[in-house]
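Render this sequence as a predicted structure.
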Amino acid sequence: MRVPLLLFSLEQAQTLGTRFRGLGVKVYSLYPGLRYDLVNADLDIAPERYSATSFLSAVIWGLVFGFLGRLVATLRAMEEPQGFLLSFGLFVGGTLVFLVLHMIYPKIIAGKVAAGVDRELVFAARDLLIQISSGIPLYTAIANVADADYGQVSEEFRVLVREVRSGKSIVEAIENMAVRTKSIYLKKTAWQLVTAIRSGANLEAALKGIVKLLMDYQFSLNKSYSAELNFIILIYLLTAAVLPTVGVTVLVIFSVFGMLSINEAVFAGIIGISFAVQAAIIGYLYTKRPAIYS
């Protein structure tokens, strides 16, 4: 498995992390939560080794940006020390940015795994409810969900079924799933099932409550996203149309009075900044989109 933007695979990271373990320990001390992020993301690597590999990868990215800075300085015939400061600044900035990205990416992966579970859980829970309402035993209903196509939820249920077949009780297997899963709502579902089984309560009523909880959660996500979307669209329109137009108009007026000079570089800069901000807004909307739309 390869982490996006990380220049080394996890197999290579195991070797590099062993060689530079001392460096990895120092980097890992800056972000102790990395250990739990790696576990939640199912990345089988020690945090010290991952930290060392992340630092080496970030340095390589920094060298690339530093080389680009030196190339720009050479093409524009920049005098020293401006050219050196440009390349060195890009090297340091690129290294820090990519180091932070590498260190937080396991948390992003873990969030995507949990979001995938939450997306499919509402459908799997409705399937369980229909089967239990029809008189099908709980284990058989769980096995049917495991054989269905509910993504990560079916995978979690397959593990549960294998544990039951290996000799564990269904209550113990569900408890293990609650501890193992990264999804908060699958944890809640599992613990409610355990409570209902141990107390002898009606499983159908428990599943109805679970389905209602999941539906309310998805509805709240959609409502929150819709409210945020209206504000972000306004910002996008301001960035894409209003601000560039007004900015160019103001610059033209100032240039008439000789206060500023406008050339191709200024227009290119305005277009570039506008494009970068628009891309950032679109990326933000994509990351904030509820998992049910994925």
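Summary. The two ends are 22 Å apart (CA to CA). The first helix runs from residue 10 to 19.
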